[in-house]
Amino acid sequence: MNKESSSYKMILLGVLCGICGLLLAFVNSVTAPIIEKSSMAAEYSNLEAFFPGASFSEIKDYDDPTGLVTGVYEAEGQGMIYKVHSMGYDSEGFTFLIAYNNDGTVAGYTVLEHHETDGLGKRCFEEDYTAEIMKISASEEAPLLSGATLTSTGVHDGIEAARTLFIAKNGGTAPAPAEKTEEEQPEEPVSKALKDEDLSSAGAVCEEKENDGTTVIYACKAKGFNPDNEAEVTVDLSAGTITAFEVTNAADDKDGVGDDAYEADNIARYIGITSDSEVDAVSGATETSKALRAMAQAALAEAGE
Amino acid sequence: MSENKEKKLGFGSQLIIENPVFGLYLGICSTLAISTNINNAIGMGIAVTIVLILSNILVSSVRNITPDDIHIPVYIVIIATLVTIVEMTMQAFTPDLYGALGEFIALIVVNCIILGRAEAYASLNPVGASAKDGLMMGISYTVSLFVMSLIRQILGTGVLSLSNPLTGAEIFAVRLIPESFVLSFMTTQTGAFLTFAVLAAACAAYKNKVTADDKGGK
Amino acid sequence: MNLLTLFLSATLINNIILAKFIGMCPFMGVSTRVKSAVGMGLAVIFVIFGASVLSWLLYQFVLAPLGLDYMKLICFILLIAAFVQFTEMFIKKNSPSLYKSLGIYLPLITTNCAVLHVALDNVAQGYNFIETCVNSIAVPVGFMLMLVIFATIRERLEGNDVPAAFEGNPIAFIIAAIMALAFTALNGLV
After folding, report:
1. Separation CA C103–CA C33 (nearest Å)
2. Is the Cβ pair A17, C74 closer than 8 Å?
3. Which of A13, A124, B211, C151 is deepest in the core (most CB within 10 A)?
């Protein structure tokens, strides 16, 4: 065949491209599994901590408009883990993992890297707050942490992004955890008798305002999201119950965070309770609700109930 | 006499006078970007050398059956395939090095050295000679890259370190300059340009001197 | 991603020559005269924009759906070479004057790292079509900007007394070092 003819050139190029294509396909088939495995290896130990013994796969295709989610892993048959990079106080941001069990409960929350301040933003990665996160389910938003607003907002936004993906994967609704009954409002987990709850972080202090022998009115102060939540709690000494609960300074209301806790319905729950009653927290207003419960607890304690 | 003078031009001299990077200004992009530490330099140098040798061999093998007007696409396909294979291999077996070199592995395709040697030498010479030429060019490139990285790393970070590319484990790390005396700008773009300029000038000065000696010695 | 931010960062802050070191070979060769710098710059803008957008389309509609990610390099570089070839033929036939001023640079641009870099970058960063277009214009505009500034400085430098060893390219690199330093001042812009 004439070297200069066009058909020769086309054939030569065609054969060349064909050989190269096959060669590349071969090398790709050999190297691709190794590459996938090593990219997951870095995360492996963390993933194992959440779901020991599970087999993991990395999900590359996910639609996260916020850009906060940097990695999605699936623990086969057990749950999903999301790697999130969010911004807090430090301009470098921080990276953490949030894992959901398939039933919607939180399987784990671990920080991988952060540069937040000790005693402030860093508290978002310490036990108290971590315990809070572990308690929420896929149908709830992460609580904010007072005194660590920027960082916890970053955590909140990151978890929101992960939660959105998790719910989307679940077909658009958050899975209802097995132990909980079907309800419109998600219930707060782990209720304890008011007197047994550890609400010391709210630092509630009650001062006797009026005492006529049968009922005492206490002026209480506690720290919710902001330090100066105040309420007047009236305790019936003979029945050992709270007969009135009036919020005199809704300190968290101005930030638009504690609103739900201050709602009339939620306040009404304090009427008629004793220190043995279980009072649920209000989702989305954890800190404020804690403050209110702390004041009720302190008032009942002061009254000797 | 001129014959003696020519024999005096050993490999070292040759390396400086006809240096592909500092003398002919080929493959500058990767040199400037990669030379922040000797690990990257050696890794990149080896990758380029492998591609260079193989591409020279392949181009030389097909030189007689390739018509003139499609020779560029043919060479490009060959080089691109080789680079893609090297890239995939590196991603799988030396992930740390792959991460450090980043897109510059893919950009080996347009590294002027490779296409340049293919055009200038491999398309005209038999396979054995082409392979040797590829090796020599590759070594020159690697050495140039190594020298530049050595300077930038020592002056810029004060630490000289080497890691095993396959496992990422550190082979050695020794601090030569105390932390407070380090010229950290050497690791930035400015430092890259500066080091390159000085090395290029040094090679040019050496070349001028040798040429002047040659002329003067007669 | 904010398009203005994308444009500014591609042109000034992550300038392809000063920050990323890509496109150096033609940079050194063509920047001795302002006139040729302008010509080269315009040709580069045209080639990078056209070739990168086409490459992106090829990737989105052919390579990605077929799972042929590893064929990216070959396909892109062939597409770029073909694009440049056709552009050159087209200009030569239709506008001899344009060919005289720009056409000679076109073959040089095929092996210009910058074209392949932009094509690969658009895919690697996961840009959508609009972002690809913006990036593919912004990067060569930055390239041309640097090229023209550089050429102006080098033209001025010709009359000066440069040490023999530094004559030609080495002094150009010193200029580049100073320019790189100057442009880092823009880092806080976005």
Report:
1. 17
2. yes
3. A124
Give percent of chain B with pLDDT exceeding 70: 94
Dist CA A192 CA A199 (whole Å):
11
- The answer to whether residue C65 neighbours chain A at the CB level (below 8 Å) is no
Q: What is the structure's pLDDT at A182?
A: 46
Domain that holds residue B155: 18-209
φ, ψ (nearest 5 deg) of residue A62? -145, 150
Q: Note the pLDDT of residue A180.
A: 45
The least confident of A200-209, A210-219, B11-20, C39-48 is B11-20
The residues in B 91-110 lying below 8 A from C, measured between CB atoms, are 103, 106-107, 109-110
How far is B9 from chain C, CA to nearest CA, in Å?
20
Q: Which of residues 169-198 of B touch C (CB under 8 A)?
A: 185, 188-194, 196-198
Nearest to A17 among B65, B77, B88 (CB): B77
Half-sphere exposure (Cβ direction) of C31: Cα atoms closer than 13 Å: 28
The answer as to whether B9 is a domain residue is no
Nearest to C120 by CA among B106, A131, A25: B106
Nearest to C74 among A20, A27, A28 (CB): A20
Count Cβ neighbours within 10 Å for each residue of A247-268 and write b for 16 or more, e otherwise.
beebbbbeeebbbebbeeebbe
Asked if residue B13 is part of any domain, the answer here is no
CA distance C35 to chain B (A): 22
Total domains present in chain B: 1
Give the per-residue pLDDT at A257: 67
Whether residue C15 is predicted with pLDDT greater than 80 in this model: the reply is yes
Burial of A206 (0-12, 13-18, 19+ CB in 10 A): buried
User: Neighbouring chains of C at 3+ CB pairs within 8 Å?
Assistant: A, B
Chain A CB contacts of C64 below 8 Å: none
Instruction: Quote the minimal CA–CA distance from B135 to chain C in Å.
Output: 22
The pLDDT of B35-50, averaged and rounded, is 91
Tokens of B183: 């010229």
Given B67, B91, B95, which is nearest A8 (Cβ)? B67
Q: Give the number of other CB atoms < 10 A from CB of residue C175.
A: 18
B59 located within any domain: yes
Instruction: Flag residues of chain A having pLDDT under 50.
Output: 180-184
Q: Look at residue C128 and tell me whether its pLDDT is greater than 60.
A: yes
What is the predicted pLDDT for the residue at C59?
A: 93
Lowest mean pLDDT: which of B83-87, C95-99, C161-165?
C95-99
Token readout for A195 is 């007197």
Chain B residues contacting A, CB < 8 Å?
65-67, 69-70, 73-74, 77-78, 80-81, 84-85, 88-89, 91-93, 95
Residue B12 inside a domain? The answer is no
A175-231: per-residue pLDDT in tens? 766 554 444 455 555 557 777 788 877 888 888 888 888 888 888 888 887 888 888
